[in-house]
Each structure stands twice: as structure tokens, then as C-alpha cells.
Amino acid sequence: MIKNQIERWKTIYNEYPKTFWVLIAVSFIDQLGGALLFPFFALYITAKFNVGMVEVGILFALFSLSNFVGSILGGALTDRLGRKQVVIFSLVATAISSVFMGLASELEVFYIIAVLSGLFSVGGPARQAMVADILPEKRRAQGFGILRVSHNLSVAIGPAIGGLLLGITSYLSLFIIDALASTIVAVLFYFFIAETKPEADETEEEESVSQSFGGYIVVMRDVLFMLFIGVCILMGLVYVNMNASLGVYLRDEFAVPEAGYGMLLSMNALMVVLFQFAITRRIENRPPLLVMAAGMLLYTIGFGMYGFVSTTIMFILAMIILTIGEMLIAPVSQALVATFSPEKMRGRYMAVFGISWMVPFAVGPYLAGLIMDNMDSRILWYIVALVGMIATFGFIGLHFKMKENEPATDIKVPIGTV
């Protein structure tokens, strides 16, 4: 069995170009540094500055809004200047801001640094565009799935290590490790990854700066894509609670320690590492938006359970259910964005897709904080379940809308095989 698995991985490796695997490797290093720290942000803020979840919500809102602005800048710069230099700048700038966040002793200073860190996060659209550049259309969903497995492998390891480190050292060490990881990746990017931006047609004039940013108007006029973004925002409002609210809820209501919450997140990530490929294979050639609807229904059940259960085994079961939903949704959603976008506008489409995460992170934690600080915390999970059901029906409705427009849009999302 182990031998067959090894052969299977060799086959997968040989199906993708070397540049893709280098991108996956360096992304893993960067994501591991962040995974040590990010899941504990809400816990850190409430403990360090002695504040409630409302202040945490304000922080997430500030960071999300500035991150979105950075993403918009990054999307335009990615399509205009290229992918590589945008990624390197982002890595170095966010590494510096991470150190200063760890050193901040006042909440107001922390807010300011978080805003700057968000503005420097211009590299996200560039990395996603690189995957679309490197891989042919039929491989993209699997490629984004592999990138996601890499991310979740880092999350499987990171929170567990971060929780253990917090038992023997301070939060500052996590900020420093995150900064070192980003710096190392910037160096690796410079030496080992070539620019992937498609060469411009010699007969075409180069876009001006105003045309680069004006291209966002074209994206906004893509009605089907913007409807897709709208439903994804509802999905994000559900999912954001895993990192923004769940840890504090479990700590305050059931005395679950930081290490226990970290292990719960690690289990989520490990499931993705072990089962993402198998699930992707089973959903190949299925209607992508119906797959997302099925995943959204599992999100609804899993997150909603936290409002009803009170034992460790049920916390684990809820995480298993929502993780299966996550494995259905994530690769398909990114492949849809790559398919929607014309080659010369990939960075901008990827940046606009960031709205689906910017809005949830901007308003979700704040609203969750208002509920948790002023009402029975279980009510949060009932509301989350209601939003999840609305999103489920939204994906189903969008599926039928796209079927009506399929001859005109020619939208097809091959999931591929592993």
C-alpha cells in the first residue's frame, strides 16, 4: 500500500513542471511561518491588551480593508510589471511589519502596523496568477488543490508548534519566526523562480497606469463573476469564524486551552493533506457550483454544531464535517476564478476575488464580537448556520444562472484527475 502511494505521488510530481513545485515549496515555508502565529491572533490581542472581541473585530476589519487595498494595487502591478518582483517586495515588507507588530506595546500602535502590513500584502494575486500562468487550464484546479494541500500541511504543523512554543516562550518569538520565514522565501524567490508573466503581443500597446487600474471596471461589469463574488462573501462570513471566533469561544465557554485549539486546527489541516486529492478525484466532472453548494451545506452543519455541542468529541466531529466541506469548496472556487479571467487580466480578477475574503474579515469578527460580548455566545453559531444556508441556495441558483448563459460565456471548469 505504501509503495503504491509512493508511485502515485511520483506520477503526480511528473505531471507538473519543476517551476510549479519550486513555487509550492517556497510558499510552504512562508505559510508555515504565518501558521505559527495567525490562529492565535484573537487570543493574543485579548490577553496582551486586556480587551474583548469587539476590539479584535476592529483589528480584523482594519487589516482586511488595508489588505484589500494592497491586493487591488498588487493585482494591477502584477498584470503591468510582472509577478516575481511584486511577490518579493510583499514578502520583505510584511516581514518587517511582523517584527514591529510583535514589539508593539499599545493597541493603537498595533492597529497602525496592522494597516501597513495589509497595504504591503500585494503579493497574493501575483502568486495565484503564477499558478494560472504555469499550468494549462485542465491542470489548474488540481494545481490550486496542490497549493492548498501545501498550505494546509503548514497549518497542520504550524498551530501545533505555535501552541507548544507558547508554553515555553512568548508571542514575540512567533512574530520573529514569521518574519524570518518571509525573508528566506524572498531570497529563494529571487534566485530560483523565474518571471511567469505572459509576453505581450508585439502588435499591442502596453497598458498605461490608468488603463491598468481602469481594467477593474471591466471586471466589475462581469455580472456572473460578481454574483459569484457575492455568494462567496456569504461563504466567507461563515468560514472566518474558525480563526477569528472559535478559539475564544472554546476558551471562554469550555476552558479549551490554546494548545487544544491549535490541535483542532491542525486536525483540520491534516485532513486536507491526507484526503484532498481523493475528494478532488471523486468530484471530477461534477458541476462546480453544485459541488460548492454541497460543501457549503457541510459548512452550515459543522459550524452550526458548535452552538449545540459541549464535549471534546463533538467539537472534533464538527471540525471533521466542516473540513470535508472545505475540501469540496476551495480548489473549485479558485479554478473558477482562473477560468473567468482573460489571460492578461488574471492579476486583477484574482484581486477582485479577494473581496470575498476582505468583506468577511472586515465585518465578520466585529459582528461576532458584538454578539459574543453582549449576548449568549451560542447565538453566534445559530446565525452562522443561517448565513450558511443562504449561501448554499445562492450557489445552487448561480449554477442554474450559469447554465442559462453557458453558450455565451463558455465557462467550463475541469477538475481533472489525480
Write a brief caption for the model.
This protein is mainly alpha-helical and 418 residues long. It has 19 helices and no strands.
CATH class wording: Mainly Alpha
**What is the CATH H-level superfamily?**
MFS general substrate transporter like domains
User: Are there runs of 5+ residues with pLDDT below 50, and where?
Assistant: 407-418
Average predicted local confidence, pLDDT: 83
| Sheet of most strands | none
How many beta-strand elements?
0
> What's the order of the H and E elements?
HHHHHHHHHHHHHHHHHHH
Number of H- or I-type helical stretches: 19
**What do we call the CATH topology?**
Growth Hormone, Chain: A
Structural class: mainly alpha
CA-to-CA gap between the ends? Answer: 17 Å
* Beta-strand share of residues: under 5%
Number of domains: 1
Query: Helix coverage percent of residues?
Result: over 70%
| CATH second-level architecture | Up-down Bundle
Overall geometric form? globular
Radius of gyration: 21 Å
Question: Any overview of this molecule?
Answer:
With 418 residues, the protein is an all-alpha fold. It has a single domain (15-195, 213-409), classed as Growth Hormone, Chain: A (Up-down Bundle). Helices cover 82% and strands 0% of the residues. The protein has 19 helices and no strands. Helix 2 runs parallel beside helix 8 (137-168), helix 8 (137-168) packs antiparallel against helix 16 (312-340) and helix 14 packs across helix 16 (312-340). The longest helix is centred in the middle third of the chain and has 32 residues, at 137-168.
